[in-house]
User: Which sequence fits this backbone?
């Protein structure tokens, strides 16, 4: 359900509530809630706690998405671990995940588990790119930069 529409720069920004009918919580619930609103659209995801993100990272991700049309998801890795909340998820892959959830075959409800079950293009970050993925969760952390 769409709850808010506002302008940010020249963009329309929409906020959605988690779909209460989904039996998951956390980021996966948010991703699947938006997928249910736009079931035929691929989703470009960026977590709100990554305020240091650089446009060059997002452009690289979009370039990879266009380069590898056979993949279901596009995610960076940081020291071998996926960064699933800066990624692109194709509608087809999200439909598959939703089907697993609906048939009680989704063993874990984490984004990392999801990317393991999709045809995912994992791209390692360079050392100089890792700072863009720093999670900032409090005002104190943000003020400490």
Assistant:
């Amino acid at each position: 359900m769409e709850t808010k529409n506002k302008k940010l720069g020249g963009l329309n920004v929409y906020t959605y509530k988690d779909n209460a009918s989904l039996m998951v919580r956390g980021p996966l619930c948010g991703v699947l809630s938006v997928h249910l609103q736009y079931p035929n659209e691929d989703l470009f995801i960026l977590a709100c706690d990554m305020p240091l993100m650089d446009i060059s990272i997002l452009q690289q991700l979009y370039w990879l998405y266009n380069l590898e049309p056979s993949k279901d998801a596009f995610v960076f890795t940081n020291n071998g671990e996926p960064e699933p909340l800066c990624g692109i998820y194709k509608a087809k892959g999200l439909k598959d995940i939703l089907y697993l959830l609906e048939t009680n075959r989704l063993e874990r409800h984490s984004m990392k588990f999801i990317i393991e079950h999709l045809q995912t293009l994992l791209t390692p970050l360079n050392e100089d790119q890792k700072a863009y993925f720093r999670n900032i969760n409090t005002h104190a952390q943000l003020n400490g930069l």
